[in-house]
Amino acid sequence: MNTHSPGEAKRVALTLAAAQAVVGAAAPIAVSLGGLAGSYLLGVDKSLATAPVTGYNLGVALGALPAAALMSAVGRRNGFMIGTVATSLGGAFAALALMAGSFWLFALALVVIGSGGAFVQQYRFAAADNAPEHFRPRAIAWVLCGGIFGAIIGPQTVIHTSELLAPVMFAGSFVAIIGLGIVGAVILSFLRLRQPLPRQAAAQGPAQRPLGAILAQPRFIVGLACAVGSYAMMSFVMTGAPLAMQGCGFSIDQAALGIQWHVMAMFAPSFVTGRLISRFGREAVIATGLLLLTGCAAIALSGVALWNFWLALVFLGAGWNFGFIGATAIVADTYRPSEKSKVQGAHDFILFGTVSFGSLMSGRVLNAFGWSWLNWTILPFAGLCLALLGWLVLTGRHRPVGRRIGSGPDDAEADIAMS
Fold it and tell me: Which residue of 41, 82, 297, 333 sits 20 to 30 Å from the alpha carbon of 88, by its own alpha carbon?
């Protein structure tokens, strides 16, 4: 692979970390305000209030393949800068939709913001591809550190701009996304990347297996189930949390801070999750994540004080991190390098389709049954995933058949950290 020298790789990682902090801040703005703004635009029936957040998740899912194709054609740096344009345009459309009082135009605008987020998801891959093997894990960690700053910048932007264009609530925050995109484009203009060379191992490996045969493997099924369970439950509860907090009398600023702590809890453990997987195994880390999700439900069900909401959201973020990264590591054991694209595509299609459905149903369940039922829903799904993990271990299928062809130790560590 054609990589930078260590000094160049550090500059690439720092540049991408800065872009992650700025452009990635659009995600917590969209998530924390999507449901609140949707409720603001709707009439008496608030059951579709979280549809805009669903739109954001759909944008990330639908934008993944076009983003990869575009970057393959024009290069990653140019593709990343085009992604900031999508983010800024989405912010402008969202502000206009709020001013026009159009709920569905607002939901569509969040799809556009989500499509910009699909490019942000590729920053850590670019950092890894342009670093020497020994520096890849640190390069990835630096980009993830940018995500932590984004978790602060986004909610703080909401706090200081939600009433900027009063009496139209929240429009100012989405106008601010335009600025985030512009600043991100300036940062990315300093990025200097080398295109990775194709891996010979992938070309020389065995013939690709049919997709159905790969998806039918017990390890893949359990890994996918745990990824879906962790991610969909996180999205289901997180999407409804700002609405529930507002319904309990807390301010928009307090709801935004809750999402800030949640997103920080999602990213911060990533610095150690890969090491924990190496030491204790994938299944143990996933089980820990599922138990943290159960703890989130227990804390939320014990009361509706501000600390209940905030602490539950922290447990929710950390549980997602362990559960999702561990599950992705299991899935990574089930395919060869030559099969990577089609398997990951099928995996992400199922995953983000379910996540989008979960975010949509969050508002309907919250409106019909209340905050408690959002949290009760975690328990059966977490129990099912734990049962599947136990079955995998008891039947001896928890041990990978062998390291994927063409993967070295650094590749395996990078795959875990990047997930």
Answer: 41
